[in-house]
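Board notes (copied after class):
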Amino acid sequence: MTIIISLCILLLIAYLFDLTASFTKIPSVILLLLLGWIVKEVTVFFDIPIPDLSSTLPILGTIGLILIVLEGALELELNRSKIGLIKKSVLGALLPLLVMAFALAYAFHYYGGYDFKTCLTNAIPFCVISSAIAIPSVRNLTSDQKEFTIYESSMSDIFGVIFFNFIVYNVDFGLETFGYFSLEILIIVIISIIATFLLSFLLNKIDHHIKFVPIILLVILIYEISKIFHLPALIFILVFGLAIGNLDEITHLKWTKSFRLDLLNKEVAKFKELTVEATFVIRALFFLLFGYLIKTSEIVNSDTILWALAIVAAIFLLRFVQLLASRMPIFPLLFVAPRGLITILLFLSIAPDSVLPFVNKSLIIQVILLTAIIMMIGLMGTAKHREIIIKEKLKAKRNNPDIDVTEEF
């Protein structure tokens, strides 16, 4: 009973963090990690027995990843007007990931003398933008900036997981390896198309009062089965979400009449609401649990802080170059490069004998906190600057009524 009451209170507090995030500009992840850490200190102080929950973290993380990518994909619009934005976000997710991963791997190799594959495996988790933190943090930005962030962070998650698995599960990297990898991509695309049709059909045809939970369970099941065969399963999540979230784009096709897209759209809207609610719960539980498992000594570990500062500096330097090259607004997008859920999941996926001595939990925590704090300060500063601009426009409008004060900043 005590556990249930505690969980309810913690989730209600997490909901309060989510409600106030748009006003305080404080990423909810920082507050959730802090809350989880406080709970741990309270249990230690009062000597409250708590079972080992560390094995639960990867499970929550995997389900959270699926739901977060699905939620992001359902929010995205696919049409010709978005092609330019999609190209920029895809390149913005892929190129910095590769450049940072190889540069950081070389630094690890030069510093410790470890083999390059092991160094690359340890480097990749630091190179992935966390959609779990980025997407909820950009609600107050312009529509283009929000869409860019959703595309970029979702694709960063997908590319990061695919790249990590490609490095981990292959010994050699010859022509045959890349050919087999291309075949895996083709297989998962075919599976995604077939599964999307079947799941859309079920979503439209199930008359039972319980219909959305089975769909989500099937999505998770297909994802996990694909992972067993080392297929890039996140591609399926992205394809499914984009397909059912953009049904309006295919209404002109004759074969879609049998699907009754008008009714299916209503079901998709309800499915989207359930996905958003479920994502909130799983994401909150994940970061609360991770915060609970954090030790104070890991946050203030002086042995890793220089590495953490160097990695964070490289992240934002590379992001500045990326935004400049893609002609996207530098501010506030420069600050939206947090590390989080995927970084933790990939780090936990590294075999214990392959983890570098200086790439430990302390380094992971420090990089996550530093990137989240920089994002918080950057977004708060940008919001204040935007308010000043709007006030100046309002003042100028008194003298010139033709000035548009609603123009996006």
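Comment from the instructor: The chain has one domain: 2-399. The radius of gyration is 22 Å.
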